# Entry
Amino acid sequence: MNLDRKKLVKKLKEERFIDARKISEIEKKCRENEETANIENESPEGRNYTVSVAVPGSILDNAQTHELRTYLAGQIARAAAIFEVDEIVVFDEFSKTTEKLYGFTQNSNILMVKILRYLECPQYLRKHMFPLQKDLRYAGLLNPLDCFHHFRVTDLSVPYREGVVLDKSVKAGRGSFVYVGLHKVNQIFFFCVYSFAKEAWSLRQES
# Structure
């Protein structure tokens, strides 16, 4: 009798263990499905095409003052950001703009390019990339674009950030200090240098 009872108890324990294991497996699968769904929602697949818009720089000539020209260029950038435009091409319909005119405030093509580049740059990098200059003296009138790569200090879970390498002395083989818009300057040992870094440096030299 005791032997049969022990077998029965053992069988019940095994069934409970199997049921508990099944429940834990089901819960695990549910968690994995939820995590996969969250990742898919947070990181949607990119488009297989790009959207480009061509705008004549002479459109700024319709504005009477430099403040209005700055605001008009900002509205163009804001509309492009809302409709997810990947590229804005500023063209000179009179074919008079040359490299010698770069930096000339009265040239509407150059002015629009500078303002669009300023707005595209993340807000925490602008003081590093764009020194004080006359063309951007009314930059305070520009509305923020709030683009996907314009992260705030509180955005700590983003997979990447644009940054600028600081001119700080470090020991050999210890990497570089990079400012990425956080309260603390990050020291990294491996990083990728994109082509826009050269362009940003040329902007500083020209301005």
The chain has five helices and five strands. Residues 83 and 163 are 26 Å apart (CA to CA). The two ends are 97 Å apart (CA to CA).
